[in-house]
Amino acid sequence: xxxxxxxxxxxxxxxxxxxxxxxxxxxxxxxxxxxxxxxxxxxxxxxxxxxxxxxxxxxxxxxxxxxxxxxxxxxxxxxxxxxxxxxxxxxxxxxxxxxxxxxxxxxxxxxxxxxxxxxxxxxxxxxxxxxxxxxxxxxxxxxxxxxxxxxxxxxxxxxxxxxxxxxxxxxxxxxxxxxxxxxxxxxxxxxxxxxxxxxxxxxxxxxxxxxxxxxxxxxxxxxxxxxxxxxxxxxxxxxxxxxxxxxxxxxxxxxxxxxxxxxxxxxxxxxxxxxxxxxxx
Length: 281
What we know:
Radius of gyration: 21 Å
Shape: elongated
CATH class of the largest domain: Mainly Alpha
Low-confidence stretches: 1-23, 223-243
CATH topology of the largest domain: Rhomboid-like fold
CATH superfamily of the largest domain: Rhomboid-like
Number of helices: 13
Strand order of the largest sheet: 1-2
Strand content: under 5%
Helix content: 55-70%
Number of domains: 2
């Protein structure tokens, strides 16, 4: 949707970040608040009534037994539950670190779709693996780690050469390198069955996160009746304003550049073109 584009959300181009005042809340922060609230609710329920806590986990944590009973909502609800403080801290740190930048470029709707799709696909992959090898990968699954790994993969797809630095160790590496390291860790952990970790969910989340930003999903959808005569789907600029072809080509090239390298890669002239297009609409 064009309203999800950065130039339609009136970002502060001088700083490269969206204005924080007078605008809606960051969806990344909203996710983190919900994670915290659910985790506190889990702790409180466990203290008040272990039986009810068990019922809650049985119905909302992801398990093949629950899916067999028709509890398909578990593919969503398990993403908001966590096993302990370290679990929620690590997942929240990853989502906060990568979520803000991705939300800024994708917009809140596509960011929410990325989060939920990464978590759902991660849950599906984990459930399929548990179905094939129940003795090794069975049991309930909780946590937003598939979402976090999906964000890491999406970040690497959007900004592959962007340099990152570890918090406590002065090591710098590219986003692409970070993704490769996490893929290797997940594959090795899956093969060796390291700990009580849903490595298959991590792999599924990373695969979905990468595909979400690299695949042009509109081309995979059936065309509308009035689109069959056209070789490609008309853009919103063509429908509402019909600019000259040179302007259209410039805007399309800039949008492709944002998709490949992020909005911070734009030159001052390219930002002016997007701002002019936004005002014209």
